[in-house]
Amino acid sequence: MAPAGDNLAEPIAVAELRAEVIDEKQASLLAEKRASISAAPPPQTDAPVPASAPDTVTPDGEFPTANELGQLRRVANTIPLKLFSIAFIELCERFSYYGCTVVFTNFIQQPLPPGSSTGADSVQPGALGMGQRASTGLTTFNQFWQYFMPLLGAYVADQYWGRYKTICWALGIDILGHIILILSAIPPVIKGDGALGAMIVAILVIGFGTGGFKPNVNPLIVEQLGEQHMHVKTLKSGERVIVDPAITIERIYMWFYFFINVGALVGQVTMVYCEKYVGFWLSYTLPTVMLCLCPLIMWWGRSRYTRRPPGGSVLGPALRIWTLAQKGRWSLNPFSCWRNFHDGTFWENVKPSRFTDETRPKWMTFDDAWVDEVRRGFAACAVFCWYPIFWLCYNQINNNLISQAAVMQRHGVPNDILSNLNPFALLIFIPLNDFFIYPALRKTGIRFTPIKKITAGFFTGASAMIWAAVVQHYIYQKSECGKYASGEGCAEVPINVWAQTGSYVLIALSEVFASITSLEYAFSKAPKNMRSMVQAVALFMTAFSAALGQALVGLAADPLLVWNYGVVAILAVIAGTCFWFQFHDLDIHEDELNELPEGRAGLTADEESPYQNKRLDE
């Protein structure tokens, strides 16, 4: 599998599509796109180009020329208001998710306070008293489960139900899981053995709901834009600009992520104080109430939202193409194997136009353009394969950093309130990047493309772990219990808890670079009838990271916590470096990847695709 994945990272030149378009107008447009994108444009600047400039003669609405691609400023398209209703649904769902999970560590790790029947305590709330290692293990499993199930939800949406129907059913299941979670924390249950069992059942049920929701809401919001193509536009000021769908998608997902973190921030802050002064049952009830708003908004949008029908059985053909492409390429000689997989014909040889009617497999009911889309989607999945290391950094804020705060001087601040610095920082970084940093980079001719952003995300995440390791080192230095600072009877370490700020802020910045970009990349690079599945693959990397994190659970306790953060930092640096060397060539071909024509799958014998090729040797 690895050699095929490497091959997927190779640039896809539009000139290699070899599509013979039957409709003459379509053929002319495709030829113009090829010529424009393949030409090497001069460095991009944001300098305004007057409408009267001699080399900007393309009419408004048409694809820009090679000169215009290099000279005109790129802008986002107008964003319809209905997109924000979907963003609000995500806000409510993330409020429910993070509002509950933020108190999981205390619920599992800390014991029930003396005399309390709800787990509330002004000093240290708790319930099950299972210790840090158990809390890290269970929260890591929860992380794995919530991001493994999107593979199932995406499959159901892409093949059977479509995104809208799948989301509606998923929300109902999610609400049921939250009700079970409430039952685990009510006074008659929290004192007995049933609390742990009810919590585990709730986690499993919520996973089914999250699995149907997350991979489908991410593409649903951008699909409300309709078909988007790069085109020239003259502003009221007379400046000619390029309306770039990639920048539009970038902006949508930036603000989509903003809404996510509004929900996360409000949910986490309020639920932490609910557990502290009322009890865990309220920390689970209020998120459930917020989640109940989501079906109402979906009902409101039933006739307003653009709904793309399910694509039918497309995952099977996509995997069959990939398998067929490997035929005859494997070799015991690693050098021969590498050459076979990188000879430039891996995907070309499995296009329908390469087969006669007699030799073409019956399952090959798609056109050549769809093969190019699948190739691009597999390349995106190859990019995501490095993400488990990135999420390994992020996951520290859900368990180990919360436990780290518990041994520091808090001055009345709950130990799990510090994690809210992460969404709070994101609420600052997102508009800062969207309105100032990214436009400034484009103005200076620097295109901060997806591969560059993701690479920056790895190194920023590594910096956050280095910060955490340094703080942990000084905790051991200053604790009266030495390297067993979290042991029973140990006094608070004389280090202010706000010393953790750097870790949370750096992780937030790494999310802007890597996490938001993964949403953009999964949407823009996936075949249109496999968008949920590619989103699910991106989300699954979080689950894989949680499984990887289980291997580090042995380091998640005194006296090994410095090693815990240090190992994660080293892994992130190595992964970021390898990622850049493997995929940096994709940046050069970003425009052509985004402008591939849409192919068709599931064609009958009587249907003919606009991009159906003839045999190349005819």
UniProtKB/TrEMBL annotation:
GO cellular component, one term: plasma membrane
GO molecular function, one term: dipeptide transmembrane transporter activity
Transmembrane residue ranges: 167-190, 196-213, 252-273, 279-300, 417-441, 453-475, 504-524, 536-556, 562-581
Subcellular location: Membrane
Annotated spans, Disordered: 37-65, 599-618
Gene3D superfamilies: MFS general substrate transporter like domains
A Pfam family hit: PTR2
Keywords per UniProt: Membrane, Transmembrane, Transmembrane helix, Transport
InterPro entries assigned: MFS_trans_sf, POT_fam, PTR2_symporter_CS
Main location group: membrane
Mode of membrane association: Multi-pass membrane protein
Family, similarity comment: Belongs to the major facilitator superfamily. Proton-dependent oligopeptide transporter (POT/PTR) (TC 2.A.17) family.
Entries under PANTHER family matching the protein: OLIGOPEPTIDE TRANSPORTER-RELATED (PTHR11654)
Protein name: Pot family proton-dependent oligopeptide transporter
